[in-house]
Design a protein that fits this description.
It is built from two helices and three strands. By secondary structure, it is an alpha+beta fold. The chain has two domains: 32 residues; 56 residues, Wheat Germ Agglutinin (Isolectin 2), domain 1, CATH 3.30.60. A three-stranded antiparallel beta sheet has the order 2-1-3. The chain is elongated.
Length: 88
């Protein structure tokens, strides 16, 4: 009888852990980060900063930052695609 409260607490803790982990995994899958190119549409490409936050495109080229990637994508949207953040 003394073990019952301990088992109950352990099961509750295990249930809470499973619930927390599964909700975290589903949130990561649904929140895929993509470059926000819409904010660069109205500015010329030469207004991009030189900060280094690399973006890898599907063509294997690493772009220095989001603005430069989005500027390169503008004229050739059908060919240039986002692959991941970071160097290729």
């Amino acid at each position: 009888m003394i073990c019952f409260p301990l088992i109950k607490k352990a099961l509750f803790g295990l249930f809470f852990l499973i619930l927390t982990v599964s909700s975290g995994l589903s949130r990561k899958e649904s929140q895929i980060d993509l470059p926000e190119c819409i904010k660069y549409l109205s500015q010329p490409s030469y207004h991009c900063t030189q900060e280094y936050n690399p973006i890898c495109a599907q063509n294997g080229i690493t772009y220095k930052n989001e603005c430069i990637f989005c500027s390169a994508m503008r004229p050739d949207v059908s060919i240039l695609r986002f692959k991941h953040f970071g160097r290729c």
